[in-house]
Amino acid sequence: MTASTLRRRSVRKAPVLAAAALLTTAMVPVTSGAAFGGAPADDLPADVEVEPRQPSEYEAAFLDQYEKIKDPASGYFREFDGLLVPYHSVETLLVEAPDHGHQTTSEAFSYYLWLEASYGRVTGDWEPFNAAWESLERFAIPGTEDQPTNSSYDPGSPATYAAEHPSPTQYPALLRQDVPVGEDPLASELSATYGTDEIYGMHWLLDVDNVYGYGFCGDGTDDEPAFINTYQRGSGESVWETVPHPSCETFEFGGENGFLDLFTDDQAYSPQWRYTNAPDADARAVQVAYLAQTWAEEQGQAGAVADTVADAAKMGDYLRYSMYDKYFKQIGDCTSETGCPGAQGKDSAHYLLSWYYSWGGALADAQYPWAFRIGSSASHQGYQNVLAAWALSEVDGLIPESPTAQEDWATSLDRQLEFLRWLQSADGGIAGGATNSWQGDYSDPGADHPTFYGMAYDWQPVWNDPPSNNWFGFQVWDMERVAQYHHITGDERAGEILDNWIPWAIEHTTVGTGGDFGVPSNLSWSGEPDTWDAANPGDNASLRVSVVDQSQDVGVAAGLAKTLLYYAAATGDSAALATGEGLLDALLANQTDLGIATEETREDYSRFDETGDQQLYIPNGWTGTMPNGDVIDSDSTFGSIRSFYQDDPDWPQVQAYLDGGPAPTFTYHRFWAQTDIATAFATHAELFG
């Protein structure tokens, strides 16, 4: 069956069709009467009123979902000076990667951009898309006053080494001058290209409502979202063991040295700023900018998004920091802290999208200004984005301005495709990833350990509580991008990966009636991949994955639907189309006033007051306070340093659970998930009408 023979099922749903009224004549770009089945618009008599085209069923579903998300009464955004900042979720009592629902992430900003790009494709109105980027740039990218001492950065000495440890109880980590670090090959090129030493990348976490009270650089105000951070203490630190702290450390809160001496062991501490980038979010922003440019060009409106696309290309230029080892050491066989040398040039580049890059420095009034930059040694399969790499290396308007950026992204595209092929299990699922710094301190994983360009295989890279690659959502986020890339380019390397992944995903997905559905949730891994040989890839016969259980995660279901639809459009696979449409129809049957959602039970909320081995770790003798006066000491728990949760309207059912009652249930409206649903409907409309 070819893609041209595939057709959507004509299932009419009254609640969805009501959204057709949103598509007015003014919202439809009229370049030809063909859009309405008639003569060119310019040739119509003046007294003839042109009726807007009727949206398809799924396009109408997109518009309905879009309206719910953008309705101020729904509570997805907070407005600052006419710009919208998306919350992580409508609900406030939510603990996952962010530890409060009214924080936001760079991920949320990238999804906000995607929502508005899809709206632009449907309506021809690109102002909301540009406004989303304006918000992203103003609030998520640190401005000049947020990162004031970059001019003091020395690319020949980018950072002082500190090992990562597997448990928070092994922190603070000692800063060591005796461990060699490499040189930063990007700094001078970027400064020369853009005429500034500042970094153009998003910080990953913001406190939108200033719930913690840090404010801008410790001033305690809530005039704008505050940059904060949480995870700082190795692979064993779950969200339940984090100490939220300001990205601008003035020693106003925390202990004698603010929060710094919980994380690093130094002879002296100085006030400073530091930010952490989540590369998958910046890459998604680039991916979406490519889509917006493509759709605007098809409408004859390329100029409407040109400035935003140019900004995305600039972001992609700086995103190359995620391609480098944390301390710019050589890539491959780096198995000793002191024995593994620092690299020169691009010998420290693994060309994958790693878990983060970070930068920081002294505050503006420092007597001895300084700055640092680090990459990340660990790369997770779920962060890779082959479509962004392709766009940054091949697409006019998105190729960055720096002299070596296009070549770097071309290398990254090939390396990412190899990486996914290397990690693909015999069952089809994609295993965790690889690291250039085994156990976070450049240990030796052993001669028989499988490697990828000399980097060690890690089934749970970056964090282990819970294991980082056990969530099926990471499979979907990555494979959706692979499927989109394959649909656009026809690259057989991507097609081979998908040919093995798609049947596995379909096999473990169920679609029933009345809105019943199940998608894979937790995964279990065994075995290892073969050591990578690009000329002769192995079959990974011993690397296996099993699906432990299913869930009704609406965001994952929407992402899976998009993946299946792109694959169906590229290959004509009828099973992929039927399953993708089945998931969309199931989502439509789970409407709420705020979007589309299902109920979930949170047994993990027992950790609000957890004590013992997995308690929030504060060293004996260390004391401090949160901005609201909550005491921080060795007796603290996750909940005790977040006493504001006790005033949350949803707290009583959590307290009842802590008192011995049943686990609480919630119906959450996460911004990324609601946007994934909206864009899934829009994807069907784009691909199949």
From TrEMBL:
<dbReference type="GO" id="GO:0016787">
    <property type="term" value="F:hydrolase activity"/>
</dbReference>
<keyword id="KW-0119">Carbohydrate metabolism</keyword>
<feature type="signal peptide">
    <location>
        <begin position="1"/>
        <end position="34"/>
    </location>
</feature>
<keyword id="KW-0378">Hydrolase</keyword>
<keyword id="KW-0624">Polysaccharide degradation</keyword>
<dbReference type="Pfam" id="PF02011">
    <property type="entry name" value="Glyco_hydro_48"/>
</dbReference>
<dbReference type="InterPro" id="IPR027390">
    <property type="entry name" value="Endoglucanase_F_dom3"/>
</dbReference>
<dbReference type="InterPro" id="IPR012341">
    <property type="entry name" value="6hp_glycosidase-like_sf"/>
</dbReference>
<feature type="region of interest" description="Disordered">
    <location>
        <begin position="142"/>
        <end position="166"/>
    </location>
</feature>
<keyword id="KW-0732">Signal</keyword>
<keyword id="KW-0326">Glycosidase</keyword>
<keyword id="KW-0136">Cellulose degradation</keyword>
<dbReference type="InterPro" id="IPR023309">
    <property type="entry name" value="Endo-1-4-beta-glucanase_dom2"/>
</dbReference>
<dbReference type="InterPro" id="IPR008928">
    <property type="entry name" value="6-hairpin_glycosidase_sf"/>
</dbReference>
<dbReference type="InterPro" id="IPR000556">
    <property type="entry name" value="Glyco_hydro_48F"/>
</dbReference>
<protein>
    <submittedName>
        <fullName>Glycosyl hydrolase family 48</fullName>
    </submittedName>
</protein>
